[in-house]
Structures are given as C-alpha cells and as structure tokens.
Amino acid sequence: MPQKQDNKTRKRKGKDIDQIHEDLQPEKAAKLMNQEVDLDIPGDAQHYCIECNRYFVDDATKKIHDKSKVHKKRLKELKEVPYSQKEADAAGGLGIFPHIKNRPTAAKPDEPLIG
C-alpha cells in the first residue's frame, strides 16, 4: 500500500526566504519584472510574483494570487530581516565574544548578595 504524502511538504520547492530577499534588491527586481518572452514558462514569463517565486498565465490570475492567503503569509515572512553570517556564527558559539557577567542580586533585603 502506498504511503500517505504529507500535506505540509511541496513537491517543487521554491526559493528560500534569504534568496527571495536577494531578489527584492532593486537591480534584480527590475530584471525579474521585465523578463524576455519565454514560451516555456507560464504566461510567457510576463506575469511573475517576486515574493512567491511564481509565474502566472495572465494578469487576472496574478491579481487573484495577490489577494490570497498564501501571498499575504509570504509577505509577512519577508518583513523579518534575514540573519547575517555574523549572527549565525555568534549563535553557534564561533568567534571571540566578550563574556557578560550577571549582576549580583539579593533574594531578600536582609540576605547577602548571590553571585
């Protein structure tokens, strides 16, 4: 008996969020929005959603997509600033970072300081 496929996974994985952030840079976005006619791509590559990395057959379909839940969810994900390599190294414990000591605190006014 064939195994059930999970609804949450897509067969055709698109671009990751950090790659889409790169595509949203003005120079790259201008190229993507003004592509040459390509007959192998839906809509001849003239109706493209940069945020979702999808081509559409016509402008009406793209407008419906712009109002969809999937598109709005992607826009919300793209509002977050992507992590930099420096932040990733710091989270992984790589590099030299200053040690931060906790300030001593007293549990009650009459007890000695802890720390």
UniProtKB/TrEMBL annotation:
Superkingdom, natural source: Eukaryota
Region (Disordered) location: 1-21, 95-115
Primary site of residence: cytoplasm
GO CC annotation, single: cytoplasm
Subcellular location field: Cytoplasm; Nucleus
GO terms classed as biological process: ribosome biogenesis
Gene Ontology molecular function, alphabetical: nucleic acid binding; ribonucleoprotein complex binding; zinc ion binding
All copies of domain C2H2-type, residue ranges: 49-71
InterPro entries per UniProt: C2H2-ZF_Maturation_Protein (IPR051879), Matrin/U1-like-C_Znf_C2H2 (IPR003604), Znf_C2H2_jaz (IPR022755), Znf_C2H2_sf (IPR036236), Znf_C2H2_type (IPR013087)
Family: Belongs to the ZNF593/BUD20 C2H2-type zinc-finger protein family.
Subunit relationships: Associates with pre-60S ribosomal particles; released from the pre-60S particle very early in the cytoplasm.
Name of the protein in question: Zinc finger protein 593 homolog
UniProt source species: Pristionchus entomophagus
